Amino acid sequence: MTTTHAGREAAANNVDAVVIGAGFAGLYAVYRLREMGLAVRGFERGSGVGGTWYWNRYPGAGSDSESWVYSYTFSPELEQEWTWSSRFPPQSEILRYLEHVAERFDLKRSFEFNTAVNGATYDENSNRWMVKTDKGDTVHATYLVTAVGCLSAAAVPNIAGRDDFKGAWYHTGQWPHEGVDFSGKRVGVIGTGSSGIQAIPVIAKQAKHLTVFQRTPNFSVPARNRALTPEEVSNLKRNIKEIREFCRWSTIGQPYDFKNQNALDLDRETLRQQLEDNWQKGGFEWMFGAFPDMLYDQRANDIAADFVREKIRETVKDAKLADKLIPAGYPIATKRLPLDSGYFETFNRDNVTLVDLRETPIERIVENGVRTSDTTHELDIIVFATGFDALTGPLTRVGIRGRQGRKLEDKWADGPRTYLGVATEGFPNLFMITGPGSPSVLGNMPTSIEQHVDWVCGLITHLRKSGAVRAEPTTQAEEHWGQHVKELADQTLFPQADSWYLGANIPGKPRVFLPYIGGFGTYRKLCNEVADKGYEGFAIG
């Protein structure tokens, strides 16, 4: 090895920052940190950029945020040169967009692909992170930025006999890049959350027969996706600056917000007409651009829920089947509210069967299919649309150890403890992009991601200017933030549902409401105030 080569290798293994992940968050983090003049190395376990949209290639996958806001704001030139084809972009188009961003800003050179981080330990003597990869490399960095995504740790159910199945099985969050041909196949889909609701209508059109295994009926509202007209594209590009600024301060980072009145203030006829108008419009605005009391007053929520139940009955021709599909036992929108394109209509097809697991639960998977308490459903392919170990899972699976070797998963054994969802006490210079305790999954992710990255970069700039080598939250600040997150959640109907927001989909996971429910705009204001006070709540040294 030459002296020059050895020097380059040493420099590569001693950097200012390591970024884990090459999705929306990781790409933007690398861009901003490089703009600050920092030496950065990024690691991505996939073979390319995209994050969520690299892995989730299942049929029907796409964004439920409007395309013109489900994108970056940091480059006016990028906003003008990229044209979205439809209101809600499909997975393939989002991935092309992120690949374009990576090429345009030369971001790939900072990443090592097909490389997973399998350990990161904070060295108190050097005030540096030692980051290890599955390739055997160890990289030392002052700052560790996790951009691992909120929904990236797939939850494959441990159903008895799963490995006995002679056919093929897939999880929606780990979909084969070459796709799956369902033609002439008997397919079973287990799970009717957002991924299942997107995939089921598409699979049904191709499969010989589709069996849907439903444990909990889900509310869903129509997406009403459509192509954007040239006039719409022109207007959006002309007004994009104002649209973006509205999103930054709105409740869920979208180009609409809750009304300044409650549902219960309206007479029943006026309210129903408003619900119908927004239903025809499609999208999340039906719920999150409507009336705030629907999320904290059971009476208002019941009105919204009954409206959707009526729509299901109108759509599904078989009344007994409709009854099985109608959600009950939890308030609408307290589980992740999906957008669908013909989901309930799919159950009118002759080649689709619904299995109600409340009546006939799964006993085990067998060689030729799924055995429930009453019969064996013969299948060629099983699709697990069973979601993720959300928010905490992607972080605890990395193998992060803080001061005195403390494992992150041990600290979070009773639920995550963070300050602002960005950092956690005992883990200096660990910065989590859209971590637990931040708004993240309760709205438009790019809006949240850019705010987080910008704020973290502001904190790093503050440290470097002041000559400080580390920052971590104080115990008091962390406890106060955790109480604040819980108090806000408890004022709503959200804790009433067994949702992945609470970790209820993962056996043994503590029941803690994971995201910050106070709204993007409020959260941004609080973060700005912390920064203005010299990053109050952080121990800096």
How would you sum up this structure, described in words?
By secondary structure, the protein is of the alpha/beta class. It folds into two domains: 15-153 and 389-540, FAD/NAD(P)-binding domain; 221-337, no CATH class. Helix content is 33%, strand content 16%. It has helices at residues 3-12, 24-35, 52-55, 76-81, 91-104, 194-206, 230-249, 268-281, 285-288, 298-315, 319-325, 393-396, 408-411, 445-466, 475-490, 520-532, and strands spanning 14-20, 40-43, 111-112, 117-123, 128-133, 138-146, 168-171, 186-190, 209-214, 221-222, 339-340, 352-356, 362-366, 369-372, 376-378, 381-384, 400-401, 430-432, 471-473, 538-540. The strands form five sheets. Strands 1, 2, 3, 4, 5, 6, 17 and 18 form an eight-stranded mixed sheet that branches. It has a five-stranded parallel sheet with strand order 7-16-8-9-12, covered by helices on one side. Strand 4 and strand 5 form a beta hairpin. Helix 2 (24-35) runs parallel beside helix 14 and helix 14 (445-466) packs parallel to helix 16 (520-532). The longest helix is centred in the C-terminal third of the chain and has 22 residues, at 445-466. It starts with a helix and ends with a strand. 47% of the residues are buried. Residues 3-8 have low confidence and may be disordered.
